[in-house]
Amino acid sequence: MLLKRIKIHCFHSNLMQTLKSKIQTNSQSYQDNHSQMLEALTKLQKHLKESRFEGKDRHIARARERGKMLARERLELVLDKDSPFLELLPLAGMGNKGGFGAGGTNVSGIGLVAGKLCMVNSNVGTRKGGSVDYATVFKSLRLGDIARENRLPSINLVESGGANLPDQAKIFNYGGESFREISRRSQMGIPTISIVFGNATAGGAYVPGMSDFSIFQKKAAKVFLAGPPLVKMATNEIASDEELGGAEMHSRVSGVSDYLAEDEYDAIRIARELMEIIDVGKPHFTPEGAIEEPIYQAEEILGTVPFNPKTPFDAKELIMRVVDGSRFSEFKPEYGPTLVTGWAKIHGYPLGILANNGVLFSESASKGAQFIQLSNKNNIPLIFLQNTTGFMVGKAYEEGGMIKNGAKLINAVSNSKVPSITLMIGNSYGAGNYGMNGRSYNPNFLFTYPNAKIGVMGSEQLAGVMEIIQRAAAERSGTEYNQEQGEMLKAMLIAEAESKSSAWHSTSELWDDGLIDPRETRNHLGFSLAVLYNQPIKGAEGFGVWRH
Fold it and tell me: Whole-angstrom Cα distance, residue 350 to residue 107?
């Protein structure tokens, strides 16, 4: 009993140190950085506006003539009034040749339905008929992962023409995986509700077919494995849309539909009614009492976090602008200072923070591994703030066991069982990305600032390494190194690497769950923590073998 009381009191936010800022908000460097960040956010808002495109005017007009709502209107109606909504992967597929544009053909995210956290996915039927391109199918798979890991019921607002035929060879197997995951979530007690407002053809018919509950809109839903033309070609049978897959047939004859809705509003009403009935359990933890705001303004993040990731800064300057009361209980502050570790709260939710203050040395990696162990022992979720060029290199550091200690941190990240969130705020290079819980280590959520960079190494380092290799090759072959050609190649490599390491590229490739405005960091992390604390948190009992 004494131990339990000690643990609770040690995490009382009023006992934590209040961080004090050293940032001069009237300095020229602060103002310049603020302006550069604002320019990047203008670009972000432009791309987000593109992602909200719901089809050409004539397609929207046709939908209106048929009395149909648009995808975002349906989504807004199914959510509780004034519910927060965390949109996920809005820029997936941005700039991909042959794709359907930023966000693909669905609008997706997490919100409250009947007071319960849900994953909601709305097909954009007025954009390419809601057909599924390469980016959209991978977006759907990622949404399924998030729903499973966080035990979120899913609501699908369905109106889709199925797979985009030119992409079918690339997406066929992945489409099957999405159906499998609906069924597996059902087995785990994580339900899916599908409302069909229009087409759900071919493989798309299995979305409502695999769901726990399916709601079909009368005289609108068309759910069949093959439409009339294909049936005519395959079997010479002549049948209408309604006979093959209409809402009334499926509700009264086939049994694929569980509920026959009169119109879109009725269909959404039924889904909300089902969410009232569905038992998802009570949240594991809900903060009580007043929530302390940070003592520093979120606006200051734009001038504080360097737009140029090469510029060093103290990660605690970001932490104090995000956590409750700007209070932070730092762990091992004098040891391994290039990794800041400690505990805090965001919107009342306890968390552990690992934040880079530069390159990772052996001491930093060892401290991080120990901190992850402690957070697992105390069942506290983790947030990683990535801004590192990786692990330190050089003869002295190799002799000092950099690989051994870096592996220790990666081992701890790999075997940690508490939920985690990763935020890319600057550099993310090499194995530093792994040690700081990058995408390949399956954080529950991963968000990125528009200035962030990610890759094997920096663009200039990459070009420099290639130049050294080419010079050595020329020397071995007895030929003279072509300096002019080498400089041209170097410039091309730098430009290519800069493009592929940008936040815009990484978000289009679904390496994160969304680019965010740094001023919204606290809200994104707070809402994500609410999702993580929706179920019991249990840390790892043990870790893999590591060298000492």
Answer: 30
The contacts of residue 27 (CB under 8 Å, 6+ apart) are: none
Cα–Cα dist 313/306, whole Å: 7
Of the candidates 333, 335, 305, 331, the one whose C-alpha atom is nearest the C-alpha of residue 319 is 305
Among the listed residues 55, 210, 216, the one whose alpha carbon sits nearest the alpha carbon of residue 144:
210
| Position 466, amino acid | M
Q: What is the pLDDT of residue 495?
A: 67
348: left (phi over 0), alpha (psi -120 to 50) or beta: left
d(CA 360, CA 505): 25
- Give strand pairing partners of 87: 109
Among the ranges given (77-91, 218-232, 240-254, 419-433), the one the predictor scored with the smallest mean pLDDT: 218-232
The two three-digit tokens of residue 513, written as one number: 């769950």
Q: 368-377, 477-486, 510-519, 527-536 — which is least confidently predicted?
A: 477-486
| Matching residue, tokens 């069909």 | 196
User: Which are the contacts of 229, defined by CB distance < 8 A and separation ≥ 6?
Assistant: none
Give me the amino acid identity at 331: F
State pLDDT tens for residues 391-432: 888 888 888 889 999 999 999 999 999 999 999 999 998 889
Q: Are 315 and 356 in contact (CB under 8 A)?
A: yes
* Angle of CA points 349, 79, 276, to nearest 5°: 85
- Average pLDDT in the chain: 90
* Short-list 518, 520, 285, CA closest to 381: 285
Beta strand extents in 400-537 (DSSP E only): 420-429, 445-448, 453-455
Q: Which helix (H) or strand (E) holds 484?
A: helix 483-501
- Residues 489-508 pLDDT 10s: 667 766 666 667 799 999 99
Q: How far is CA 84 from CA 109, 116, 172, in A?
A: 10, 12, 34
- The CA-atom distances, in angstroms, between 120 and each of 71, 75, 191, 449, 478 are 11, 7, 12, 24, 64
Alpha-carbon span 342 to 347, nearest angstrom: 17
pTM: 0.90
